[in-house]
Amino acid sequence: MIDLYPHNQKAYTALCDMLAQSNRACIVQPTGTGKFVIIAKMVQDNPGKRFLLLGTNEYMFSDQMANLAHIAPGFKPGNLQFMTYSAAMAAAKADKDAPHCDVIVADEFHHCGAPEWSKGVLHVIEGNPSAKLVGFSATPIRYSDNGRNMADEMFDGNIASSMGLEEAWLDGILPIPKYIIALYDAPKELGNIRVSIEKVKDKKKHSKFVKRYEELRRSLAEASGVDEVIARHLTKQNAKVVVFCPNANRLRDFMLLRRAWFGRVNRDIHAYKTISADPYGSLDFQSFKEDESDSLKVLYCINQLNEAVHIKGIDAIVMVRPTKSPIIFHQQLGRVLSSGGNQTPLVFDLCNNFGSLGGIMGMQERMERTYEAKTAHGEKPPYEPKDFQVIDAIKDPRELAEELRDAMNPKVSIEEKITFLEEVAAQNGGKL
Fold it and tell me: Helices in 377-424 by DSSP H: which ranges?
């Protein structure tokens, strides 16, 4: 028998209650909080019903079933069938019958808004007109798609249970990370600024800009480098670290920097990479998962670990993939929050993703509001907003850069500011 944690039992009960009144219902809660266990519980409690689980890939499902074998030894759900969104799409294009089922479960249902995959989902739904439709997602809003709310579109707004990341932190369901902001790459930016200053003909303005430029240059030269920032906070010599890279070329570049970045923690570094669409088929991926040596273990990846892949014992993630997508941001964050490794997992944001997604204040304010709401209802969360540590390693240089940029071009857009901040970095041997 599957026993659920209290937060999942509450969500499961609410889901069952809603499904008794409606054919559509969904649950929204963060990555790493046990959504698949709720699915398994539903399957176990309804042995006479056929379940069709739609998900992103086979490897995700294999990983989930492997975890289920530890949670519920001996439970082999014969009434559960898995189908990828891609396979559903292919079936729709080929006009093949969808698998017959009583309950359709859409995992990570925000994907159902994708143009091609949506056709496959609709094909499955139309092929099972009497089936219940259940969905799970951490991020139902498609921010890159005009803010479409897939909970509204697919489930008529029937959200049985909703939990935000901040609530999961305050209640101790997910570990609260230490979030370290730094920047790594902009050797040309100072030179470009200097060239722009030299074009200023007004002597007063020119003198003012030169003064601010020198302040910025000195500030950057004096700031800590990435190696110092990492070594200051990552003290576990045999830690497991995941580095999220923007593409294969940059992945190779960052792998070459592994001793420069991590050598102060441990000179003995085991570096792994996965760039294929099948991380489970990667020997490096499997080796990283199984590596329990005293070496520092670093896995470099592109997109494959963003979603639904869980590796036990991750102590830190390093973000070097710029993104303005809250979905990708939270998925990357989920890799360390759900890992069960360090009690205070580390997030090294080297591309200002946190700032470009609403800033520190936004998340801290949401934590404050959630905490106040809970205490107003007589709850006493085990953690408080102050437990969320945010360390801005480049605050002063960044503020100087902003001031200089604003002074030189007061009409600069917010988007340009963000791009600039993501690019500003250190001189003098890679120092910030």
Answer: 395-408, 414-423
**49 and 80 Cβ atoms separated by less than 8 Å:** no
For helices 203-222 and 189-198, the axis angle rounded to 10 degrees is: 170
Residue 150 and residue 135: Cα distance in Å, rounded?
10
Q: In whole angstroms, how far apart are CA 353 and each of 75, 319, 349, 375?
A: 41, 8, 7, 31
Q: What is the DSSP letter of 51?
A: E
Q: How far apart, in whole angstroms, are the C-alpha atoms of residue 133 and residue 104?
A: 5
Domain, as residue range, for 227: 178-186+221-423
Q: What is the pLDDT of residues 349-397, one digit of tens each?
A: 887 555 544 555 667 788 999 999 999 999 999 999 999 888 876 655 5
Tell me how far apart the alpha carbons of residues 400 and 215 are, in angstroms, rounded to a whole number.
8
Full-model pTM: 0.77
Tokens 């230490």 -> residue: 178
CA distance 243 to 335: 11
Of 265, 274, 270, 273, give the one whose Cα is nearest residue 236: 265
Neighbour tally for 374: CB within 10 Å: 15
Last residue of a domain, one of 128, 163, 198: 163
Rg (CA), the chain: 24
